[in-house]
Amino acid sequence: MKIRLLLLYLAITFGLSWGLISLLILFPQQISVLFGELSAQNPLFILAVYSPAIAAFSLVIYYAGVEGLRRYLSRLLLWRVHWAWYGYIFIGIPFLFYAGAAMKGNLFTDSFPFSVWYEVFPALAFMLILGPVEEFGWRGFALPLLQQYFTPIWAGLILGVIWGIWHLPAFYLSGTPQSAWSFLPFFIASIAVSVMITPLFNVSGGSILLPLLVHWQLNNPIFPDAAPYDTIMFVTAAVIVVIINRKRMFSKDHAVTKVIPGNLKPFDGH
Q1: What ranges make up the beta strands (E) of 14-150?
Q2: How far is it, in rounded angstroms, from Cα 131 to Cα 92?
Q3: pLDDT tens digit string along 62-92?
Q4: Is-above-0.85 flag for pTM?
């Protein structure tokens, strides 16, 4: 049942998002007339980005009802971790981008991305409600199911591969950030970031909030464009995170395996 549930989740996620992005690619003029120019603000693109969360919400409600959804969303309130993890999110991740930009040579040459300083606040708010919403699905739903069968290191790697492949159509859609990047470095970075998030997810007891904050930092519009050198930094960081957390990463003893807290079939992790 758990494997079927995971496969169903992936089918809904990929079917909805890839289907919508296919429409954006195949019918750009018609979509532009109906929904505006193709960009990250296009409603259909936003809906495609939300597909991992939509799939998770749909399956939780279908199998566990409104009470199950409430308990699932209670994982947004899990925030208690060692202070070093917050340093990892709010200091470590920016450092990776700036170090990558230093390697690229544009650390001091790129101009501030906003003409007026206070424009950064609505941009940060928009990024908070765009990409990070994916985490309701990837870490909120898929990762616990994967950890029922695999140790965290393998679950993080597998989810990273899936997560990276899921982004592939966006690289063929003009107007998205991915359209200016190379897929292979992004794909490798996705796997590295997935591995980096996994021990944080487990040590927090299955928090959805903390992976959401990590994802927000990854999309922070203030940071310089360090691609593809940021991939080197993320892979290095992932190796360090795994070494530091090796006892948790190579054992299922402390892995979070429940999508919904409590014993609620088919999500109870047993």
Answers
A1: none
A2: 20
A3: 999 999 999 999 999 999 999 999 999 999 9
A4: yes
